[in-house]
Structures are given as C-alpha cells and as structure tokens.
Amino acid sequence: MVFMKKPTSRILIINDENLILKEFIKGLNSAAKSLENPLGITFAGVTTAREALQAIQDDGDIQSVLVDDTLYTLKNGEKGSRNLQMTALKLVQEITRFRPELDIYILIAQEKEDEVVDALFTETVDGYFYREERDYRGMYRILNAQLQEKARTPFYDQLKNYVLMAKDAWHTPGHSSGDSLRDSPWASDFYQFIGEHIFRADLSVSVPMLDSLMEPTGVIAEAQKVAAKAFGARRTFFATNGTSTANKVIFQTLLAPGEKLLLDRNCHKSVHHGVVLSGAHPIYLDSSVNKKFSVYGPVPKQTLFNAIEEHSDAQALILTSCTYDGLRYDLPPIIKAAHAKGIKVIIDEAWYGFARFHPAFRPTALEAGADYATQSTHKVLSAFSQSSMIHINDPSFNEHLFRENFNMHTSTSPQYSMIASLDVARKQATLEGYKLLSRTLELAQEVREQINSTGVFRVLELVDLMPDEVKHDNIQLDSTKVTVDISRCGFAVEDLIRELFERYNIQVEKSTFNTLTLLLTIGTTRSKVSRLYDALMRIAREGRAPRRLYHIPEIPGFTNLKYLPRDAFYCGGELMPLLDEQERINNDLDGKVCADQITPYPPGIPVLVPGQTITHEVVRYLISMLRSQKRVEVHGIVYDGYLPCLRLLTAAEEKGLKKLVK
Ligand SMILES: Cc1ncc(COP(=O)(O)O)c(C=O)c1O
Description:
- The protein is α/β, with parallel strands linked by helices.
- It folds into 4 domains: 9-151, 3-Layer(aba) Sandwich (Rossmann fold), CATH 3.40.50; 165-172 and 203-430, Type I PLP-dependent aspartate aminotransferase-like (Major domain) (Aspartate Aminotransferase, domain 2), CATH 3.40.640; 433-541, Alpha-Beta Complex (Aspartate Aminotransferase, domain 1); 565-655, Orn/Lys/Arg decarboxylase, C-terminal domain (Ornithine Decarboxylase, Chain A, domain 4, Alpha-Beta Complex), CATH 3.90.100.
- The strands form 7 sheets. It has a 7-stranded mixed sheet with strand order 6-15-14-13-11-7-8, sandwiched between helices.
- A hairpin with a 2-residue loop joins strand 24 (638-640) and strand 25.
C-alpha cells in the first residue's frame, strides 16, 4: 500500500466582531470534526481586512474565504481603528485579484440582504450564508461539497472507475490492456518498466463512458469546463498534440488564405508552419536582440504599434509571452491597440501555463485581454508531454469552425492518460498552485544567490537580459527561468554541459554560446538545488582560466516576402547548392525565392521562410552556421549527396504565382 499524504484545507473567516468570530470558528470546526471531512477542512479567523490579506498571502492552504458583510457597511471614520478596514466589496476584489482560485462566501448580517447581493453581483462570489441562522453543519456541508467539486477530476475519475471495472476489451489498442506484452519473453520488460496502469488506462474511443475529445459532451466536456473556470477563460479545449498543434488550429480558424497575420519572427516553428497551412499572409516583426548573450527578446512596443497602424487590415497578431528566456511583454496596451483595429490577439503561453496561480506572474494573457492563449501545460505544470490547453475569450468565437479545425489536427485515437493528466494538472494548480509556486519562487531566489556566490557564474537579471530596444517597454522577467553567464568559468558551453551531465548528473534546459538556462518548476526540489550549487561551486573552485567563446553571428534581418508561404511551399521547386565549385558562396542564389523554411537551431528563428527572397548575406550566414564549430542543426537544408542545397522556386513556378503586395 502506497502512503498518500492527506490534503489540508483551511477556510478563513473574516469578521470584525471577536465574539461572533469565535463562535463561528468553534461551530464550524466542530461540524468539520463530526461530519465526513476527506479534504482536511479546518476553520481559522481574523478580524481585519489587513490580516485577511496577509493570511491569504502567507498561507497556501487557504482554499475558501468567508467574508462578513458588516465590513461592507462600515463607513470610514466611524470608529478609530475601524478606519483601517475596507468594505467587503473592496476586500472581495482584493482577494480575487491576489488569488482568483479561492472560493469566496459572504456572511450576511444585515436585514437587507438583497442590497448586499446586488452590491457584490459583479464579483465572483460563490455563495451566501445568513449569519443569524448559525447553521454550522449546513454551512460546513456546503463548503465541503463545493471544495470537493473543485477537487474532482471528471475525466480522470471516470478513467480510473473504468479501469477498476475490469471490462473485457474487444477493441483497440492492440496490446489489450497490456495482455499482449505481460507474458512475452521478448517484450514484458517494457510492460514492467512503463507500468501496468499505463496500459490499462490506454483505451479507445469505443468506450462511450470516457466521452470523445472530438465531440465532448460528457466527462471531457466537464473537465474542460472546470479548466476554463480555473484559467479564467470562457472556453478551454484540451490538445493532445502540444501547443505546436494548438497554434495551428487557431490560425486555421481565424485566417482565410491571403489574410494578414502579424507575428514575431522569433515565434516557435509551429507558428511558421501554421502560416503555411492556413495560407496566411505573414507580416514578420523583428524581435529585439541582446547581442552580448545571443538572447532574442520581445518585439519592441513601438514596432508593434506601428505594425498595427500600418496593417490595420490584419486579422490577428501572435506573440510569445513569456519567451523561452522568461521575458514577458507588457500586454495590456498592445492588446488594446490591436483590438482598436479589430485585430484578434493570440498569445503563445507555451512557457507560462502556471501564471494564473500566483500574483508574481500575472496578468496572464487572458487577464490582459487576449482572445486566445495556448499553453504547454506539460512544460511547466504536472501534465504528460504533448498535453496542452487552448483557452479562449474571443467574444466572436466561431465554435463550429474551431471544432472543424481542431478535429482536423486531432488523432481519432487520443492518449487518455494525457487527457487525465490535464485534468489533474488543473486540479493541482487550483488547489495547491499558489503554495507550490511560492516555494518555486523561493527556490529560484536561492538558486540565484547560490550561483552568484560562486564568484564565477553569474545569474542574468532583467537588466542584463533585456535587449536595448525594449528597455522602456515595461518588460518583466519570470524568475523561474534562470539564465547564467558562464563566460568566466573556463569551459566552452558544450564542454560545461557535458561536465554537468557526466560528472554531476545534471541536465540543463538550453544554452547560448555564453549562457545556460535552468528551468525551475513546481517539481523542483531542494535536493536538486543543493546538487546544482555543489556542482557549480566545485567547477568554480577549479579556477580554470576563462577561454574565448565562439560567438554565433546574429541572424540577418528579414528580406522580402515575394509570395504567400503556402503557395511557395507547395511548388515542386529545384535544388541549388549553397556553395559553388570553388566552395565559395553561390552567387546564383541571390534574388531567388526559397520554397522551404530554413531554421538554424539554436536560436530556432527562421532565416528564410517559403516565399522569401534569398540574399548573399543570408547565404553567407547559413554557410557560417554549417561550418560552425558549435553543433548547429540547420533545419530545411536539403543534401544532394554531400552538397547542402536550398529548394527554390523555378522561373516557371514564379511566373504562375501572384506576387504579394504589402
Ligand atoms: C514558444 C513556444 N511555442 C510553442 C511550442 C510548442 O509546444 P509543444 O512542445 O507543446 O508542442 C514551444 C516548444 O518549445 C515553444 O517554445
């Protein structure tokens, strides 16, 4: 039997009359003791709004709040110390702003309860109790039931139930609950390694009680509905092929072929693939660059405002916030400007799915007004890889079109454990996200201090990371992404990564030529932090002399988009080598149009997209990448034997295509 920790749930009562407060705490705690209490509910109380806000900040186990409406009727200046208090309305607003995941209840003490209800109508209040009834058991039952509702995972619960029902499988998948593997002399080790339940829970659409991801009406619909509430969306959809697919689904919903999309050139490759698939006319916006550390940052605010003005006919704008390095846009003014022109805003929050659950990371994209947010729940919360969410607040959301596109990209055999993991990740984020993220933030601060104390490695703070072009753009840094300057440690970055891996068992997230990035998540433990510190301190104490680091050249600016990426991509094209017979830059490429997306990784930004004009400078850059001492993959290059080539449009193909007008 595995030992499972029991949850603790505290419910905070705020009432400025000490005697009444004590009576309520006593009555409710005794109800909690005598009735079923699987969530470990206890009641605690404070008398002032200030203490209440402090408790909500300090105590991650608080799940619900009971606010007495007498605070609401208190007038400023009525009696000395009471001046410190705020109205119940203001308090409810403050609590919701700080921790929107908490349940809020109002204790009505006044005669005119309808006035109280009216005043709080626009706030997210989960229920009301009439104080004079003193029905502690009744109150406890409701509070407990509502908390249990939040702790429910509709899809995961059903999946577990189904597995426990042990039905005979006369359907896919072929392993049939693992029966094909269990006794195999050749493959039973896989069964043992992966675990019995992964196979038992790997079921098919033939099981109606598990609903359908393609047309959810049962437990998947329910799970998505609770997720929408938790993430502050009107609608939420679970995606089982990552944010890569989520971005494509949204593009195909919002953009008809030829319609304009404003996008950061540094968007993830799925965004560029989405441009090809949707047939959109992309308007690329150059990201800011921190040349010292080869870090690509946000698009400058002014560039965005200018683009919105110049391309007010665009259908949508997509930006990544926060970026892989943790740089976060000041989204509200940008979204406001886009909306003023009727442009929909999509924010790729692949790296920011936890942000809703701690005020240090907010506002989220949706809170800032975005129409769509895509999140790789698997990257930063407890979901399985590929499990993502699409959150929607678009007031003119076209559900039918979205559904058609969602289904176009979704396998008819989705992995049910992934859907369950999204359900559980939502529950965990709602009930203990604040607590876990507070701890992650603390660990991030410790990691920063420890790394700096080595005297050799240095953590880059916002001022170091932020490119000059965005210095006045109110950019924020997500401190759970820790970028470290390694230039004084005496190792080249690849050697340092190898040393950390082989000698200290540490695998980092990513690197540039002179930095390493470490990702802290809600799964980061104190032990891992101390092992990292130990490793970096030992390396620092070895006292190697700093060495010259090979600097990857900056990617050339965007040239000219001659044709729609989709039109260019679907041409057959011809191959042309990057080098001529003397191994020099092939000048014949100059002015030709590329049919593929060419992306050196790192940094992962396309140097060429289909339909883009090739220049001498671009070819020189690609050759320098291919010849680089640092291992750089250049995606999109075609090898004709050993000759690296680009696929280009032929003259005849160009003749048949319509040129783009800006
Ligand atoms: C900014 C950004 N968007 C989207 C993705 C794709 O996410 P997924 O891995 O969930 O498909 C990534 C993955 O690295 C990313 O960095």
